[in-house]
Automatic annotation (TrEMBL):
PANTHER family: DIGUANYLATE CYCLASE DGCM-RELATED (PTHR45138:SF9), REGULATORY COMPONENTS OF SENSORY TRANSDUCTION SYSTEM (PTHR45138)
Full protein name: diguanylate cyclase
GO cellular component: plasma membrane
Any Gene Ontology biological process: negative regulation of bacterial-type flagellum-dependent cell motility
Catalytic activity: 2 GTP = 3',3'-c-di-GMP + 2 diphosphate
Domain GGDEF span(s) in chain numbering: 252-384
Organism: Rhizobium loti (Mesorhizobium loti)
């Protein structure tokens, strides 16, 4: 087998392998459709390269058209998938204009004014435009993580490759008048090798991004309570410790609110566990809505909840607890008999100095105990502060 054929088969082999890998990933992560689009992209580029080297029975001219249509589909899919992966709105119009314009120019220089050099320039400039469009879409998120930054740089490099490399080679070794000797030319060799390298780098980066997605999802599962949708005790303690560190460095106030559903065991016994689950889910939804994105809300026990509120002093935390208590006690819960009243009790404590989470929770729990003891459906505050250990000075011998 000659070297030219080996080089010609390099990109189709790589593309099919990557397409199969992304397809397998998608079968395990159907909720991430961009993986299926990536599989389509790499699979579409494989026949594009094959039809550059092998001629179909329809003739060379139409074979080249089919090849470049495959390349255009691959470029559009790859661009859209990368942008979608990072939560950006896919610029369908821009992608369509660049790919469609490139194909239209290619057809003009294929059928109307045949010119191989201009066909090369038309398609390469279209793909360069797609690469830079992806780079522009990734620019706002390029500092969000390593994969965003790497893909942003690769998009720029890909754009330079399509523009600069093509122009340099065409100026140095062109113009190309026919396909005789074209596939052994410096243009074709550099195109294949640069495409293989960039394809592998982009695919490895996207594989890494997919792996990070899986790890993030697994971490979320281990830190989330499935019934309430809030953080579980482990997740809450980790998130709360992080917030306490940040607030200590910035000297921001922090308050903790503990809540406990009143008479929950009796409600379970009378109405059943399914009704109890609905009560927990309903209360969690109200708590999450009130806390918003700034607070850390968790279900830390069967019917016990906690919310850590940064930038909140004792008075503001009391207003928060009273608002949740009033909202919850005033409404009903779907699935419970009409007139069934469900309430909750609250204990509130504000952080003192650089107080750790454990003593802060202990003081809030003591306030919650007072609320439960004094009739429930109420809010109680902790005015106590952690005891400060005073070390006496050693006595001096007279």
């Amino acid at each position: 087998m000659d070297t030219g054929l080996l080089i010609a088969l390099l990109n189709p082999t790589i593309a099919l392998a990557l397409g199969a890998a992304f397809f397998v990933l998608w079968t395990y992560q159907r909720h991430r459709p961009y993986l299926a689009v990536l599989a389509l992209s790499y699979c579409a580029s494989a026949p594009g390269f094959l039809f550059q080297y092998f001629t179909l029975p329809i003739g060379m001219v139409l074979t080249k058209l089919v090849s470049n249509i495959c390349f255009a589909i691959a470029g559009c899919c790859l661009s859209g998938a990368i942008v979608a992966r990072y939560g950006r709105k896919v610029p369908y119009v821009g992608i369509g204009v660049l790919a469609g314009g490139g194909l239209a120019s290619f057809c003009w220089f294929l059928f109307v004014a045949p010119d191989l050099t201009w066909r090369i320039l038309a398609m390469n400039f279209a793909f360069g435009g797609l690469s830079l469009l992806v780079g522009a879409e990734l620019r706002p998120v390029r500092n969000n993580g390593p994969t965003e930054k790497i893909l942003f740089v690769l998009s720029l490099l890909s754009g330079l490759n399509f523009f600069v490399r093509t122009l340099v080679v065409v100026i140095a070794h062109g113009p190309f008048t026919s396909y005789d000797g074209f596939y052994s030319s410096s243009y074709w060799t550099t195109a294949l090798l640069s495409h293989a390298l960039l394809s592998l780098l982009i695919a490895l980066c996207l594989f890494t991004a997919a792996a990070l997605d899986v790890m993030k999802a697994l971490k979320a599962e281990t830190h989330t309570d499935p019934l309430s949708g809030l953080l579980n005790r482990r997740g809450f303690e980790e998130r709360a410790a992080q917030l306490l560190r940040h607030c200590a460095m910035a000297r921001f106030p922090v308050a903790l609110v503990l809540a406990d559903l009143d008479h929950f065991k009796a409600l379970n016994d009378v109405h059943g566990h399914a009704a109890g689950d609905r009560v927990i889910a309903d209360f969690a939804a109200k708590l999450r809505s009130a806390a918003g994105a700034r607070g850390a809300a968790g279900r830390i026990g069967g019917e016990e909840f906690a919310v850590l509120l940064p930038l909140t002093d004792l008075a503001a935390a009391r207003l928060f607890a009273e608002a949740v208590r009033t909202l919850y006690s005033a409404g009903g819960v779907d699935g419970l008999p009409a007139g069934t009243k469900v309430t909750a009790s609250f204990g509130v404590a504000a952080r003192s100095g650089e107080e750790a989470l454990e003593p802060l929770m202990r003081r809030a729990d003591e306030a919650l105990y007072k609320a439960k003891k004094n009739g429930r459906d109420s809010v109680r505050l902790s005015y106590e502060r952690p005891e400060t250990l005073v070390v006496p000075e050693p006595s001096k011998a007279g």
